[in-house]
Every structure is written in C-alpha cells, then in structure tokens.
Design goal:
Structural class: mainly beta
Radius of gyration: 12 Å
Helix content: under 10%
Number of helices: 0
Shape: globular
Distance between the termini: 12 Å
Strand content: 35-45%
Order of helices and strands: EEEE
Length: 77
C-alpha cells in the first residue's frame, strides 16, 4: 500500500511538488520531491527505511505553482 495522491501526475503544475510527512510531535519522518504515485511514493517507511509505527501522521504537499494541501492519515499495523 502507498499514500496515493489523486491526479498528481495528470494536472499541470502538480508534478513539481514536495511531500512531507510528520509524526504527532511535528518531526519530519518522510520527505520527497516530485512525488508521482509510482516510483517516488510513501510506503509507510521513514526516511531511514524503517517501518513507521501505528499512529496518526500529518502530511503537507507543496506545489511549485499551485496552492498546497495538508491533511492527516492513520497507519494501522
């Protein structure tokens, strides 16, 4: 399973992006540029390659030319 961002690869201006994922304490646990839902994705692993524990995580998607998005999701293991 991955964190799927709908239309990120088809709407002009969305391809240039930065996706950041934070834990409940506000620490960045994952960050990547040019997220694309295929090869550059979040799979529940932190930047160090280890599985993130169950819990609520917050995301921020920054686009080069569009307004960004924020939200949250829950990982259940």
């Amino acid at each position: 399973e991955i964190f799927f961002i709908q239309y990120i690869d088809v709407i002009p201006g969305m391809a240039k992006n930065t996706v950041s994922i934070y834990n409940r304490w506000g620490s960045v646990v994952f960050e990547i540029t040019d997220y694309n839902n295929t090869t550059r994705v979040f799979k529940g692993l932190g930047n160090n390659g280890e599985e993130l524990p169950s819990g609520t995580y917050f995301y921020k998607i920054a686009f080069e030319k569009l307004e960004g998005r924020t939200g949250y999701f829950v990982i259940k293991r």
